[in-house]
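Entry for zinc ion complex. Fields follow.
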Amino acid sequence: MTTESTYGEPARHGSARICRGCWDQMHMPIPIGGPLALPFRAFGITRSKMNPDICTICERSFQYVKKQRQITVDATILFADIRGFTDLSERIEAVRLTEIVSLFQDRCAQAIWAHDGIVNKQMGDGLMAIFNFPITRKDHAAAAILAAQAIQRNCAAALNSLAPDAAPGRPLGVGVGIHSGEVQIGEFSSFRSDFTAIGGVVNQAARLESQAAAGEILLSAETAAMAAALIAGAEERTLTLKGIEQPVRAHVLVKR
Ligand SMILES: [Zn+2]
């Protein structure tokens, strides 16, 4: 089996006529494209900002969709952020920083959506993505890795064209961390209505990202085992992660 035939071409995103999240979670066809979507739009049901192939029902009405406050889902969590951004933010004007952040967020979102993930949280120069909810993908680990590789391909040169005066010898780059396993998904805030994922798997993905150098993708052994075809020949590294007692084995994919 080749990588192509196993994982297929990236899906076209933003073109779904019915919400893929509501369909996968409830088998309910909620129109989000074409004339049938118009009456729904009148009631405020539109494409979600987390992924344009899902709708604002599955984004904001988790308890309606799942009939529970929270659920346990086997998922892959991806964190990405701009390395060198804090340094840079002290030296260049706010308007250029804004351009850099929006370019980063936009390129990352395109890559994540192309592989059926959602951009669950955006935190300035960083983000958190979830794969396998609410759009289900059996190959969610591979989908996240392919998205991370697209992020690395599409970000570095573009970021540096916006910041030609980044510290000499330390160009801007993106660090990515990925981990797979059981997460709790639900609404955990009393004042926000969108869902998120919590749990040890989420924390470990964030810790892996914090150890990734510019251009690196750090994957846990669990993620790597689910997508062996994509990580053949990757370097392995033993890491001590904050808040995690045992050393963690990570696979390192480097932008080529
Ligand atoms: Zn939906």
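NOTE: The longest helix spans residues 140-162.
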